[in-house]
Amino acid sequence: MAEKTHQAYPMAPANGYTRSDGESLSEDELKRKKRIKCFAYIGIFIVFQIAVMTVFGLTVMKVKTPKVRLGTSTLTDFTSSTTAPSFGATFNTQIRVKNTNWGPYKFDQGIVTFMYQGTPVGTVVVPKGKAGMRGTKKINVNVSLNTAALPSSSTLGSELSGGVLTLTSEAKLTGKVELMLIMKKKKSASMSCTIQIDVSGQTVKSLECK
Questions:
Q1: Burial 146-172 (b: 16+ CB within 10 A, else e)
Q2: Full-prediction pTM beyond 0.85?
Q3: Burial of 27 (C-beta count, 10 Å sphere; 0-12/13-18/19+)
Q4: CA–CA separation, 144 and 161 (whole Å)
Q5: Helix residue ranges per DSSP H, the chain
Q6: What is the per-residue DSSP string for 85-110?
Q7: pLDDT digits (tens, 9 = 90+) for 90-147
């Protein structure tokens, strides 16, 4: 009796389709390209974040020195004498503390001094205050000016006779700029002004500050 032989055949896929080696490589290539694209997006995002942080640091977080200046000024009760050289007046002005930072500038009490040839002829106190973010603090003051402290050798008489009296004014405010509620940096605001007074007109002829 002859023996029956059975030949084994490979099982076919359930869907009747067999994936070739070429298709397998194609899918791997697609996955590799997706990974590369993903890494590229991450790299672009990191570069963008670095750029934003750099701009932020160079603008918002950069602390600038505030400025203090004299604003519009007038004279009242002006008197002068060329015989015994002297003058007296009330100088009405506005002290302006300008803050260009992205955070408030809190300053301590300071003093503005008015001088004739380096000798004080009047002072006024600047009270403790705050200039807001990118804002200007304005303080109206009236300063009494007189020549009681001037030396007898001054050239005041010739200036009064010439019709133009030149004064200077200086101030310095100390304080701190506060950024993001966490960073505080000390900054001092200073001022140096030249004031020319029209003696006959009893007015402020010019005012220049730096």
A1: ebeebeeeeebeebbeeeebebebebe
A2: no
A3: exposed
A4: 22
A5: 21-58, 156-162
A6: TEEEEEEEEEEEEE--SSS-EEE--E
A7: 999 999 999 999 999 999 999 999 999 999 999 999 999 999 999 999 999 999 999 9
